Amino acid sequence: MKNKYVEALYYGILQALTILVATVLVGQLAGIGIPTILFGTGLATIVFTLFTRGKVPIAQGSSGAWLGTAIAMSAFGLDHIVGVTILGGIFYIIFGLLVKKFPKILSVFTPYVLNLAVLMIALNLVQTAVGLISSAPITAIITIITILLASHTKANKFMFPIGIAVGTLVHGLMYGISAEVGQAFVPTLVAPTINSTTLLASMAFIGIVCEALGDSKLVCETVGTPYEPHKVIIGNGLASLFAGMFGMMSTTTYSESCGLVRATGYASGLSIIICGIIYIVAAFVPQVAYVINLIPSVVLSAMLLYLFSMVAAHKINDTKLETNHAISVAIMGIAAFFSAPTIFPSVSQIAVGMIAMIATHLVLKLLKK
Q: 3-state DSSP call for residue 75?
């Protein structure tokens, strides 16, 4: 019994370290403070794990797929970010209940539609990252090259920490390094703003639900637990609702956490709960935020650019368009995705692209009949 708990503690710490950089990066780029990110991540992780009874052992984190929407809402204030998070959580729950009642709804999420949705998320984040590195492009380029070179060596498991270390050193030599004094988390409920702007922005959940379904299915297959998509969707909604109440942006089941489970073959609800507890405790320790703040934002943005360029490359490779039907769906989705900022400036590009793909898929099926 003792070994079981020691093992859960070890993998709980490993989970916390694995998702730390990405979840802090995404939250910071959206303008969320580090203590709030840590607390919200821990709370969301525990809520999701308890709801799914530990059968889907994945940690939650600041969703990169929500980043573009969160940055847009940050121009209006934190209350708008929270409004989108709360509404997104509610839509997740409603959609999850519909999936439970009418499971055939998920038939429209064909493999190529899921792959294209993740590709759109990646492309959206690549656009965001390019804008964020403009303040110090030399730092960003050196960071990306370092990560790329490290990925082809025996130290490939540590390519991101190496890239961050080199990028931070270069940036420090060129511009200097500074960090704000760390602040401890102060639990404060944040009132959301619910209006037409946050309502339209929250439609991004349509595309992001694909990422959650893909990650959870992979983990369930790895650990041999039943895959219940409606519980995953509702669990994500509840996690976002609870995190949002304390000023956090929307969370989702994290791909990095999923990757760790698949790489190690170890998964338990207890280890994920421990990961959540570590984050909540860390939120109240000012020194944690101070150390993280020493990393320049342009270095984290460069890592984001590398990560999602890699995701885009993999999804282009995975997307098999073997029929005219699939090609037509892809064309409409891509056209809608890139046209969205001009035609529907207040609506998520990802949501517009997903709606276009699903609508085209259904219309073509009807015409075939």
A: coil
